[in-house]
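Provenance

Sequences were taken from public entries as deposited. Structures were produced by running a predictor on each sequence independently, with no templates supplied. The record for DUF4440 domain-containing protein from Sinorhizobium mexicanum is shown for reference.
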Amino acid sequence: MESREVVEEWVRRFNRCDAVAVAELYREDALHLPARQHCIEGRSAIQKMFERDFAVAGMTCIPAVLYEIGASVVLEWRDTSGRRGCGAFAIRDSRIAFAYWDETCILSDAKSST
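Predicted structure for DUF4440 domain-containing protein:
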């Protein structure tokens, strides 16, 4: 799979809340770095992180921008509850070697106060 295809498949599996299937896209020695948290090391630990996250929150990833350059992919996303964020993925041998994930909470009907 090309780098972009790996991330597109990641989104599909993530939206099914299938921690096992999501983790299969990571290399055994992968690193997953959620913003403001400790780095998660290894496929097994990444799977456990997704299992915990999926158990407590219904999450949806709606891609807004998907940008590929070589083996790197940047995903700008939103969800139905007003959250938005960005993910950066480094792909090696059709698997995720490194992922950085950040989100901000923005209410969809928020108005700017200028």
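Residues 66 and 75 are 5 Å apart (CA to CA).
Helices lie at 3-15, 19-23, 43-56.
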